């Protein structure tokens, strides 16, 4: 029976692969091998599609309307809350986590102002919060993405769960274990609280759910 390389890797039967690092990933983009705006990100040294669907039956490159609206709502809410704290929100833009990760979280909260990053991309030390809006991507966001963000030491990770209509707030990254030590869950009718620049900020869960 024929086997794909990925299937062999899962079973531990494949030869070691050579992962891309962040610099090589940038070289591919500059060379046009990866087109500007392609729906891919670098995770664990591999190029993977960003899953922005509402339903796994949709084509992988499509934006689902629920996902898109959830991202827009979360960005709008966080932008207003964090600007007075000397931070800014970004929408589906990269955070560089060397050597082999450059995810593009749906929303991130970054220290300073936009112009501070005219010559470089934000890294983990520049980042207070990363957020993923999840429907068909929920399993990966709770698994691989949580590990990547916690290993980088990003203080807070937020998942907006469009399936259960919840906001999950992960804090206290345990870097060696690739996990967060604390998770709080907020539902409709409740306010979710995050800490940015040492200050608590709160928003209504209803305001970020489509």
How would you characterize the overall build of this protein?
With 210 residues, the protein is α+β, with helices and mostly antiparallel strands. The chain has one domain (53-208): tt1808, chain A, CATH 3.90.1570. Helix content is 24%, strand content 30%. The protein has five helices and ten strands. It has helices spanning 5-10, 22-30, 65-82, 138-151, 205-208; strands at residues 40-43, 46-49, 87-91, 107-111, 127-134, 156-161, 166-174, 179-187, 191-196, 199-204. The strands form three sheets. The chain has a six-stranded mixed β-sheet with strand order 3-4-5-6-7-8. A two-stranded antiparallel sheet has the order 1-2. A hairpin with a 4-residue loop joins strand 7 (166-174) and strand 8 (179-187). The longest helix has 18 residues, at 65-82. The termini are far apart. The mean pLDDT is 93.
Brief sketch in words of this structure:
24% of the residues lie in helices and 30% in strands.
Task: Please give a handful of descriptors for the protein shown.
5 helices; 30% strand; alpha+beta; two-stranded antiparallel sheet; 210 residues; tt1808, chain A
Give the C-alpha Rg: 17 Å
- Give the low-pLDDT segments: none
Portion of residues within helices: 10-25%
CATH homologous superfamily caption: tt1808, chain A
Categorize the overall geometry: globular
Largest sheet: 6 strands, mixed
- Helix/strand/pairing class, anyone? alpha+beta
Domain count: the total is 1
**Widest β-sheet, arrangement of strands:** 3-4-5-6-7-8
The pLDDT mean sits at 93
Strand content: 25-35%
State the end-to-end CA separation: 45 Å
CATH architecture classification name: Alpha-Beta Complex
Task: Give the strand tally.
Answer: 10
| CATH class group | Alpha Beta
Topology order in helix (H) and strand (E) letters: HHEEHEEEHEEEEEH
CATH topology: tt1808, chain A
Count of helix runs: 5
